[in-house]
Design brief:
This protein is mainly alpha-helical. It has four helices and two strands, in the order αααββα. Strands 1-2 form a two-stranded antiparallel ribbon.
Length: 99
């Protein structure tokens, strides 16, 4: 029985690298279906209004890991979200961002 060369697929016309497999596709569809059943966008707006930390965690899961600001500084999404959360907390406690 002939061996394949290192790094060569046994099925060159198989599923393209990086494409979701059947299980991943089905899981993603189940999550989207559940999202629609709980209210879709309206549900997310409610979470954003009532539980900002959870909403920020959701954002963290879907936003890119790094962002580049207008002044060309690279900032990790975690740093950006922490800064936004601090602003939200400051505003909620009645303090200004500069205080």
């Amino acid at each position: 029985m002939a061996k394949f060369k290192r790094g060569q697929s046994g099925n060159p016309s198989g599923r393209p690298k990086g494409s979701p497999n059947k299980t991943s596709r089905e899981a993603a569809q189940a999550i989207l279906d559940a999202f629609e059943k709980v209210g879709g966008v309206d549900y997310l707006v409610g979470v954003a209004q009532t539980d900002r930390r959870t909403f920020c965690m959701l954002l963290r899961a879907v936003l890119p890991r790094d962002v580049t600001l207008r002044d060309q500084r690279a900032l990790s999404i975690e740093e950006w979200l922490r800064a936004r959360q601090a602003e939200i907390d400051s505003a909620a406690s009645g303090k200004g961002a500069g205080e």
